[in-house]
Specification:
This protein is mainly α. It is built from 12 helices and no strands.
Length: 246
């Protein structure tokens, strides 16, 4: 089986599962799919996953756009602008495996600190800070959800999903532009991302039951669990890749 077929089949399955998770929790597509795609085709990342990140939020916004926290979104986008610039520098000067481990460690630290408290204070400073970190990690690896999700973990499900969806849409546009400017957005990455939109759409369609289940008061636990699991997956993926490298 060719590497292209593996990317489309195995990567497509990862995108499908990630879309189910994000459809319910509000984030998680990149957390599930980015490690798999990075292992299968590191030269196409993070551009390929950013194409998917750009599109899936539109599905959520079509249903829940009235729940967007516009004030918080403004702080998050403002913080993300300088973060994206730093993320672009990291893309140019650090390997994708090093970037993955750094992101994973940062996410685990955030989860541990958050789990020990009732919630992270949600104000202009914390949201802008989360946007800044998200700009770094999102541009460098395609995974920008955890910082913002951890700040919004105490909000209701629809507000989390709608606010994150709008943030992800704007963030992906910004990251794709930055990657293009620094020469890290090959045409093959855009084409692969476009093909992966099919399993993404299917995953979102079947995420309805998960949305209803989590909205019953289980969103915070789900946010922390998905963030922690994704971080561990990133670390394992990078350790395995480095071990198997010639």
């Amino acid at each position: 089986m060719t590497s292209t077929a593996l990317v489309l089949i195995i990567g497509g399955l990862a995108v499908f599962v990630g879309a189910i998770v994000q459809g319910g929790v509000g984030f998680g597509l990149a957390l599930v799919a980015a490690p798999v795609l990075t292992m299968l085709a590191p030269d196409l990342m993070p551009g390929a996953i950013q194409v998917v990140n750009l599109t899936l939020p539109l599905f959520t916004l079509a249903m829940e756009w009235r729940k967007v926290d516009w004030r918080g979104l403004g702080f998050a986008v403002l913080g993300r602008l300088p973060g994206s610039a730093i993320g672009a520098v990291i893309v140019v000067y650090f390997s994708i495996y090093t970037r993955g481990v750094l992101v994973a460690v940062m996410v685990l630290i955030a989860v541990v600190l958050t789990a020990k408290a009732l919630s992270v204070p949600r104000n202009g400073a914390t949201i802008a800070s989360a946007g800044f970190v998200s700009g770094i990690t999102g541009t460098a690896t395609g995974i920008g959800g955890p910082p913002i999700a951890l700040v919004y973990q105490s909000a209701k499900g629809p507000q989390i999903r709608a606010t994150l969806a709008m943030f992800f849409f704007l963030s992906s546009v910004q990251s794709l532009l930055v990657l293009e400017v620094v020469g890290e957005l090959p045409p093959q990455a855009l084409l692969t991302g476009a093909v992966l939109l099919a399993p993404m759409g299917l995953g979102f369609l079947v995420s309805g039951p998960l949305r209803r289940y989590l909205d019953g008061g289980k969103v915070r636990v789900a946010v922390l669990a998905v963030a922690a699991a994704s971080a561990v997956a990133l670390i394992v993926q990078n350790v395995v890749t480095q071990t198997l490298a010639p």
